[in-house]
User: Fold VOC domain-containing protein from marine sediment metagenome.
Amino acid sequence: MRIEHVAIWTGDLERLKRFYTKYFNCIAGNKYRNESNDFESYFLSFDNRARLELMRMPSIPNNLNDPKIQYEGIIHIAISVGSKENVVEITEKLRSDEYTIVSEPQTTGDGYFESCVLDSDGNRVEITV
Assistant:
């Protein structure tokens, strides 16, 4: 078994798509649109077959959680970028583009080398080897 995809609601579909395609080299499929309920989405594909679905529908309310505080439930996605050097490089690129760095590149107690950033919607993304 494997996780097929994870989905994220967003108020700005194009902005979030640009974030993941620019920094993590995802390939965006064609935009799906359902005119009857104003739903639209993209599937973004990673090179290992994992996918991220980005969805927008005006009737979905904003997330009221503070992205800088941990809480119960799904709290982050982790994206493997292949090397420590890539973790540092992507983190620095995000910093220079004024994204929030939640944690600097470091080796964690369980042996991961990672950083954590907020995407354009404030979702936590761990960047790991």
User: Anything to note?
Assistant: The radius of gyration is 15 Å. The mean pLDDT is 95. The beta strands are 5-9, 27-28, 32-34, 39-45, 51-56, 76-80, 101-107, 113-118, 124-128.
